[in-house]
Design brief:
This protein is of the alpha/beta class. The protein is built from 16 helices and 14 strands. The strands form three sheets. Strands 1-5-4-3-2 form a five-stranded mixed beta sheet.
């Protein structure tokens, strides 16, 4: 930490004494540098944080009201304190100066005649240099520690935790949309407005920001928040390159995984693929066929941040060390391994980190065949009106029937519904969508008509057409079950 006024007062060789403390915390102010001057208005040459030293030669009357304006100008410049040398021009501290410092809460120190200003200057300069070297050393140690953690595959949250400990505060990684990709502690809130202000001005309300422009990473910010007095930017700058490298690796990971994960997804949704082939595809993607697997299915809303997928992955990595992801149409599918009985923990993290999102957590699955069923169940659970992450049903008859029926069941389901498909294609109709919605609404006509935004008479006409084409009585339980299973079999074998 940089030297404070209180630490200067504690140095016996300087002989400084307090005339006015500058308010309750005035002596805790940090001295950035020393500025000896006899100018009436030195404010144009000050940057803030200086210990201003003067003998008052410019104003010899100790009661002159001009002292008040002098102190006001220095306070507006952000000085740390005024050090007034006595015995050369003034035998004592001018009364008007002391009164002005008291009124405006500016610290005022008395410098005895035998102490040269250069002595104070040298003391502060030595302390500043020592602090800078200590800061450089700490920054180097931080960088070495982060490099070691990255090489050992530490999660991003652990890297941010290390930085937070170094600055004795909080740290976050924000994307260009102001979304928090990761933070430490994880339950902190951040203002993108203040972060951008700090990026432009250097600091804002305790925010300190470094842009991650190295290692091919752009539009991301490393943000620290802590009390004043810590060289935050030095720590953040030291960590920024390593964080950028780690982030770039994570951003590229999904694109590198995509071809292999697409093959795995095809195997998981094609129930005719043999188990030994599925096991091989799991291993090709770094997943164990015998480990408990948690499956997450997410549907990003339109306009979601470009970092949505990474945020989702990082959240799951808080619980499970091994995470693989793949896109499937509008959905994101993620598979997590490495911890047993982790399904509820993953759900809790997602509800905390990504509230209000359409996400389903399913599992655990204990082998490749169970992963198929768990994935099918998760996708069936995802609903358009969903308002938060939820867990899928532990017993899903549709997924179980799909697993038992295999590919033959899927082909039979397609043939069963083919009359509706052909009719819709020839007449630009909506019978398939009507039947699907009718089944999802538990066969309740009024609710179905509401969901389809159509009149009840139109709905009844369509249902009559469906009954004739399929040769079914849609009022019967057997017909509803048959249609529901047909859709389940088709959906379970569709990669989209």
């Amino acid at each position: 930490m940089a030297i404070s006024i209180g630490q200067l007062l504690a140095e016996p060789t300087l002989g400084l004494t307090v005339v006015e403390p500058g308010g309750p915390n005035g002596l805790e102010r940090v001295v950035r540098w020393v500025a000896p001057t006899e100018l009436t208005d030195p404010s144009p040459f000050l940057r803030g944080g200086e210990l201003l030293l003067t003998t008052g030669s410019f104003l010899r009357d100790p009661s002159d009201p001009s002292w008040e304006r002098y102190v006001e100008r220095l306070k507006n410049s952000g000085i740390a304190a005024i050090g007034f040398g006595i015995g050369l021009v003034h035998e004592a501290i001018p009364s008007a100066l002391a009164a002005a410092c008291r009124a405006q809460a500016v610290a005022l120190l008395c410098v005895p005649y035998h102490v040269a200003f250069i002595q104070i200057n040298e003391f502060v300069a030595d302390a500043v240099v020592a602090n800078r070297f200590a800061g450089i050393r700490r920054a180097g140690l931080l960088a070495a520690s982060l490099a070691t953690q990255i090489s050992n595959g530490a999660p991003l949250a652990a890297l941010l935790q290390q930085i937070a400990i170094e600055i004795d505060g909080q740290v976050a990684l924000l994307d260009i949309d102001g979304e928090v990709l990761e933070s430490w502690p994880s339950n902190t809130t951040w203002s993108s407005t203040k972060a951008l202000e700090a990026l432009m001005t250097g600091t804002a309300d305790g925010y300190h920001v470094v842009a991650l422009d190295s290692a091919g990473v752009h539009d991301h910010l490393l943000v620290g928040r802590c009390e004043a007095g810590v060289d935050v930017l030095q720590a953040l700058n030291s960590a920024s390159t390593l964080i950028a490298i780690d982030l770039a690796t994570r951003l590229h990971k999904e694109s590198d995984e995509a071809p292999r994960m697409a093959t795995l997804l095809s195997a998981l949704t094609n129930w005719a693929v043999p188990t030994d082939t599925l096991v091989r595809y799991l291993r090709m993607n770094g997943l164990s066929p015998d480990a408990e697997t948690v499956v997450v299915v997410a549907h990003p809303t339109p306009g979601s941040s470009s970092g949505y997928s990474l945020r989702l992955r990082l959240a799951i990595e808080q619980v499970m060390p091994t995470v693989r992801a793949v896109r499937s149409g509008e959905h994101l599918l993620l598979f997590g391994q490495g911890v047993t009985d982790a399904t509820d923990d993953v759900l809790a993290v997602l509800q905390r980190e990504m509230p209000g999102r359409r996400i389903v957590v399913a599992g655990p699955a204990r082998d490749g065949e169970e992963i198929r069923m768990v994935l099918a169940s998760a996708r069936r659970t995802l609903r358009p009106d969903q308002t938060q992450p939820v867990r899928s049903r532990t017993f899903d008859p549709g997924a179980i029937v799909a697993a038992a029926a295999g590919r033959g069941g899927g082909i039979a389901a397609v043939e069963f519904l083919k009359p509706l498909v052909d009719h819709d294609a020839a007449n630009n109709g909506e019978l398939m969508q009507t039947l699907r919605t009718y089944i999802e609404c538990d066969g309740k006509p009024l609710r179905t008509a509401t969901m389809l935004y159509t009149h009840r008479n139109t709905l009844h006409y369509r249902l009559d057409q469906i009954s004739r084409l399929l040769n079914l009585d849609l009022q019967s339980l057997d017909a509803k079950v048959s249609c529901s299973l047909a859709f389940s079999l088709i959906d379970s074998q569709s990669p989209a």
